[in-house]
C-alpha cells in the first residue's frame, strides 16, 4: 500500500445526485461520435462470428439486451438451415430473459454458458447434455475473466439506459459484469433501451478500483449506502461498433402472493431475529439483509413490514418487489444490490416512481455486491432458498436428484460463507408432498454444514450454531422435517447410530441416497 | 468510515524489530505484579471447575499449554475415580499435542471440542460418539466466540514465551485465537515456556482492529510482510489468576522424507506453475503460497528449492520444515502464518537459529492469517490435501467413508474459496491400494467443485478451471485416477451418461456411494 491511503468512501448527502439533470428522455444517445453507429439489431448481430465468446449484460431478468440476441438467434437458425455450424459462448451477469437465453438456446446456438441460468429452454438443453454450462460463484466471474484462463472475450453486448454527450454509458436496471465485459471485449455492441426509466441515472456506483493480485487494495466500503465509485461506465468509443435502440420491458416472472407456508417460514425467521435482538446478539436495526430470489424470501420482506424493526438496510444481489414495499412502508432505509428483479407490474410501477427511490437504492457491479470482503465486513444476514438439506445441514441449492441442474449456485456461496448469520429456508416438502426437502443425505452439496447456521421450514426453525453433527441431526429432524417424513428420517438416523462406520456423523452409504433413487424410480420419495 | 482513513500498514525495514533488546532468558516473568501468582500446574488446574469452557492456546502442535492440561487431566481422573462427574469444553486455535487433547480425552474429560483436532485419542472418542466435536472454518472461530452464541468463556489457558515488565505477553510458537481468548475469558492462566526461543519476540503481529458488525473496517494488510498490529498481547493483569513456568518442547510429528509419489505430485504442480508464468497468468515470483499441513505439501516446498522461482512469499496458516528450508535456500523471501509446525528436530534447530528468521517470518492471529478478505486480496495460491475427490471435483477433506472424522476442515475452506488458484493434491490411492482417492461421488463434501480448480495426484494434474462437469469428469478420470481404478470410474461415468436423471452432472444415486459400501464391507474398494 506504500504511502497511499486507500480511497475513502463518499457518503453522499441524501438525494445529492438528484441535483444533476437526469437524462433527457428525448435524446438517449447524446454522444455525436456514436450517431453513425446506430443500426438495427440484424446489422449489429452480423458483427458476431461463429465461435465467438460474448459477454452479455443481464442479471436476474433485468438489464439484459433484448434485440441483438434475438437477431443473433434468427441468424443462427438461418445458418443452421443452410447446413452451416454456428454456435457462441455466452457469459452474463446471471440469468437473463427469454429473448436472450431462451431464443439462443432454442436455436441451438449456445455452445457454452456461464455463470448462471434460469431460462427453461436453456435448462432443458443443459440437462439433455447438449450445452456446456459452468455454474460459478457470482463474485468470481469478473476476476476469472480478467485472470485469462477462460480465454478472450470477443464481443460485449450491453444494455444501457443512455449515452451521455461525452460517451459515458448510463447503466440500466442491472449491473452484473458489465464493467468487466466493456473493459475486456474486443468490440462492444450497445442496446439503448428507452423503456428503462431516465431516473435510473444516479442510482449506480461503479467501483474501478479492483485489480489482479498482487495489486489489490482494500475496498473502501463500510456501510451499505457508501458510494465508492462513479455513476457511469467508461468505454473506449473506438470499440463500440454498433448502437441499437430498443424500447422493451425487462421480462421477469410475476410473484405469487405468499401462501400459508411462506407466511409460516417468514414468521419463524422474524421470531428468530427478535430473539437475537433480545439476546443482544443483533442490533435493533438488524444487520444488512441479503435475500435470495424467490417467493419465500419475498414473503420475508413482506413480513418485515409488520415486524418491530426500523431503519433496516440491505446489502444484497437483487431488489425484489418485497424490498420496494418494505421501503415504501418506511422500514427499509437503504438497499444496495446489483440488479432490480421486479415482477412486470412492479417494474411498470417502479418506472413511474423511480425518482422516489434515487436516495434509497444503489446498484453496483456484482463483484462488489457479492464480494466476500464486503459481505464479511458488513456482517450480512444471508437468507437463501434451497432444493434440499440433509439431516446434518448440508444444503443442495442446484441439482435435482444429484444430476439435473435447476438454476445455479449464484451468489449463495458468496453470502453464506461470509454472513454474520447464514440462513437457508424452504417449504419442507415439494411436488405435492412427494419430495421431502429434508433427506438422509443431499444428492449434491453446494453449502457445507459450516455455512448453514440456521435452517427454516414452515415446520420450524433450527438454530444449528455451535452444535455438533448429532445434535444438528436431532434438531433438523425434530424441527424442520415434514411430519410425514419425520419417522423415516428418525429411523434412518437411529440405524446409522447403531451401525455406521464412524459415529461422528453417522451415515449409511448404501442407503443414504435411497430416497433419491426411489423418487427416480417411482416418482415419489414416500416408501 | 466517516473522515477516518483506515490505518495504513507499516512496512518495517527488514530487521528493524531486532533493534529492541530481545527477552532476557533469565527472567521470563518480568512484571512484578504477577510474581505472587506463580504456582504449580496442579494449583492452577484447581482454578478450573467442572463444566467450564476453556480457551486454550495451540495451533498444529505448537504453542499449546503443556502443564495445566496434564494437571487438569489428573484432577479429572481423580474426580471420576471418586465417582464425581467432571468434564470441560475446550476451544483452541487448531490441533494441540498429546499433553492437551490426548491427556484430557484419555481421562474422558472433554465434553465438547472445537474447532479442529488431530489427536488420535480424541479422534477415537469423537468417532465412538463419546465427544461432541464441532469442526469450524478457522477464520470464523474468533468472531463466533465474540458473537456470543457459543456461550461465555470461563478460562483462558495460554502458553506465552514471556511477560514483559509492564505485563505485556510475549507470544510463543503459535498465535491461534489467543488474543480473543485473553479478551473474552473471565480468568486467565498463563504458561510461560522457557523452551521457546527468546528470539520469537518481535516475530508476532497482533491486529487489534477487528470488531463485530456494524463496526468492522477494512483490514489494512496488502502484502504478506505488512505489519498492522503490535508484537505483544495485552491482558488485564487482574484477570490473570495463575502463572505456571514450564520448559517443554512442542511435540509435533516428524516428517517422512518425500517418497516417489510426493515427488511426482510436486513435479506436476511445479510444471503447472511454470506454465502459468509462461502464459502470463502468474508473475515470475508467483503469488503468496498457502500450504496445508502434511508430507505432500511439505514435498512441494522442497521441490520449490530446485524450481526456477525467486523471491517467493507465503501467506499461510503454518510454517512447516520445508518452508524453512526454502527460506534457507534463499528462495522464500517471507512467510506470514499463525503457527510454526516443525518436526522435533527442526524445532530444536529453529530454536538455535531463530534470530536469522526474525525478518523473514510473521505470526498473526488466525482470524487474520485465514481472513477471506486478505486471502482474496493477496490472491493466494492455495495448496491443500484431501481424503477423496469425486469425478466432478468435489473434495472430501474430513470424513472417512462419510462418517468418521479424520481431523477437520481447518483453514482449507477459508483458503480454497478465496484463492487465486485453489489446488488440491493427494496420492491417487490409499491403504496400500485398497482405497481409490478418486471416487464416483465423495462420501462427504467439504469443498464444492467451484472451489476446486486444480486437482493433482502422482498420476497427473487436472486443470479444471472453466470446465463444465462432464469435461471435468473426463479430465479427472483420465488424468488423476489410478490406472487400477480408472476403468471402473469410466464404466460408472459411461453408464451414468446413459441413464442419469439429468445429464448436466450424470449421477447414479443407487451406485454413487457403492465404493464406500464395498470398502466398509470388504476392506477394499476393489471389486
From TrEMBL, chains A, B:
* One MF annotation (Gene Ontology) recorded for this entry: acetyl-CoA hydrolase activity
Q: Which GO terms describe its biological process?
A: acetate metabolic process; acetyl-CoA metabolic process
All copies of the Acetyl-CoA hydrolase/transferase C-terminal domain together span 355-492
Q: Entry's InterPro entries? A: AcetylCoA_hyd_C, AcetylCoA_hyd_C_sf, ActCoA_hydro, ActCoA_hydro_N, NagB/RpiA_transferase-like, Succinate_CoA_transferase
Q: Which Gene3D superfamilies does UniProt cross-reference here?
A: 4-hydroxybutyrate coenzyme like domains, Acetyl-CoA hydrolase/transferase C-terminal domain, Glutaconate Coenzyme A-transferase
Indicate the family of this protein: Belongs to the acetyl-CoA hydrolase/transferase family.
Name by which UniProt lists this protein: Succinyl-CoA:acetate CoA-transferase
Q: Which organism is it from?
A: Rhodovulum adriaticum (Rhodopseudomonas adriatica)
Amino acid at each position: 500500500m506504500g504511502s497511499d491511503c486507500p480511497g475513502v468512501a463518499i457518503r453522499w448527502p441524501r438525494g445529492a445526485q438528484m441535483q444533476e439533470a437526469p437524462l433527457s428522455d428525448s435524446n438517449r444517445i447524446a454522444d455525436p461520435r456514436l450517431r453513425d453507429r446506430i443500426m438495427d439489431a440484424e446489422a449489429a448481430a452480423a458483427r458476431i462470428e461463429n465461435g465467438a465468446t460474448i459477454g452479455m449484460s443481464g442479471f436476474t431478468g433485468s438489464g439484459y439486451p433484448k434485440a441483438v440476441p434475438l437477431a443473433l438467434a434468427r441468424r443462427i437458425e438461418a445458418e443452421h438451415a443452410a447446413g452451416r455450424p454456428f454456435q457462441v459462448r455466452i457469459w452474463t451477469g446471471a440469468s437473463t430473459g427469454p429473448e436472450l437465453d431462451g431464443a439462443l438456446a432454442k436455436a441451438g446456438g449456445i455452445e457454452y454458458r456461464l455463470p448462471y441460468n434460469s431460462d427453461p429452454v436453456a435448462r432443458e438443453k443443459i440437462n439433455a447434455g447438449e450445452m456446456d454450462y459452468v455454474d460459478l460463484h457470482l463474485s468470481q466471474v469478473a476476476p476469472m475473466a480478467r485472470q485469462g484462463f477462460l480465454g478472450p472475450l470477443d464481443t460485449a453486448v450491453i444494455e444501457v439506459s443512455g449515452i451521455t454527450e461525452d460517451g459515458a454509458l448510463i447503466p440500466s436496471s442491472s449491473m452484473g459484469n458489465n464493467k468487466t465485459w466493456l473493459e475486456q471485449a474486443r468490440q462492444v455492441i450497445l442496446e439503448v433501451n428507452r423503456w428503462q426509466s431516465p431516473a435510473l441515472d444516479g442510482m449506480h456506483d461503479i467501483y474501478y478500483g479492483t485489480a489482479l493480485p498482487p495489486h489489490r487494495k482494500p475496498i473502501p466500503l463500510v456501510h451499505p449506502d457508501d458510494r465508492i465509485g462513479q455513476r457511469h461506465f467508461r468505454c473506449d468509443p473506438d470499440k463500440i461498433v454498433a448502437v441499437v435502440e430498443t424500447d422493451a420491458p425487462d421480462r421477469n416472472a410475476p410473484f405469487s402472493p405468499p401462501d400459508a407456508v411462506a407466511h409460516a417460514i417468514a414468521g419463524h425467521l422474524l421470531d428468530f431475529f427478535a430473539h437475537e435482538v433480545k439476546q443482544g446478539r443483533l442490533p435493533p436495526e438488524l444487520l444488512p439483509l441479503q435475500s435470495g430470489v424467490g417467493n419465500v424470501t419475498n414473503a420475508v420482506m413482506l413480513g418485515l413490514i409488520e415486524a418491530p424493526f426500523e431503519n433496516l438496510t440491505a446489502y444484497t444481489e437483487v431488489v425484489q418487489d418485497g424490498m420496494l414495499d418494505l421501503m415504501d412502508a418506511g422500514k427499509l432505509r437503504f438497499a444496495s444490490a446489483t440488479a432490480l428483479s421486479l415482477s412486470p407490474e412492479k417494474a411498470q410501477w417502479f418506472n413511474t416512481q423511480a425518482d422516489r427511490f434515487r436516495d434509497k437504492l444503489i446498484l453496483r457491479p456484482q463483484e462488489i455486491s457479492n464480494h466476500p470482503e464486503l459481505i464479511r465486513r458488513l456482517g450480512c444476514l444471508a437468507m437463501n432458498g434451497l432444493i434440499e438439506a440433509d439431516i446434518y445441514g448440508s444444503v443442495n441449492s442446484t441439482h435435482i436428484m444429484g444430476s439435473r441442474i435447476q438454476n445455479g449456485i449464484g451468489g449463495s456461496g458468496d453470502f453464506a460463507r461470509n454472513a454474520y448469520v447464514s440462513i437457508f429456508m424452504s417449504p419442507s416438502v415439494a411436488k405435492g408432498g412427494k419430495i421431502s426437502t429434508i433427506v438422509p443425505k443431499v444428492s449434491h452439496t453446494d453449502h457445507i454444514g459450516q455455512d448453514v447456521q440456521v435452517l427454516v421450514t414452515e415446520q420450524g426453525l433450527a438454530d444449528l450454531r455451535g452444535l455438533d453433527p448429532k445434535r444438528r441431526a436431532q434438531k433438523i429432524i425434530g424441527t424442520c422435517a415434514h411430519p410425514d417424513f419425520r419417522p423415516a428420517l428418525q429411523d434412518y438416523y437411529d440405524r446409522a447410530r447403531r451401525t455406521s462406520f464412524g459415529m461422528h456423523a453417522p451415515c449409511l452409504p448404501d442407503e443414504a441416497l435411497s430416497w433419491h433413487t426411489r423418487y427416480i424410480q417411482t416418482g415419489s420419495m414416500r416408501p
